[in-house]
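Researcher: Next sequence.
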Amino acid sequence: MSKRRSVLEAQITAQQRKAADLMAENAWHGIVEGVEKKTMQQIAEEVGVSRRTLYEWKEKEEFGEYLNYVSDTQLSAMRMEANAAVMRLIKAGSVKALALYYQRHALLTNVTEIKDLRESDGPKRKTEDEIRQDIADLDAMMNG
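Model: Next structure:
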């Protein structure tokens, strides 16, 4: 078990962990075979709390962090399938999939060139003597 998971688990109860695990699994319905869609009421009953309690837990930062951790872990476990899907798309001729592959492996980067034209197109900078003269002119205007 990772240190992060241990820290997150220590911040919530066993019931909250079970609820988060069920909720994260429930999100995979229709994506992963064998995952049946459950209602929040069904999850609440399985955990032994009210549906309202589940919604209250979802608002708590610690519960949300653990739920996100579980979800991220499940997503990471799907990386192999995602990579295989990208390769299938590349073999089918998808230019976008090919670009994604190259970007993922830092073989293709987007470069934006910005050219600063302010020096050549901007106003001419005054010399110190010109600035002194401007100050003297302003002084003369102010003091009569």
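Model: The CA atoms of residues 28 and 34 lie 10 Å apart. The mean pLDDT is 89.
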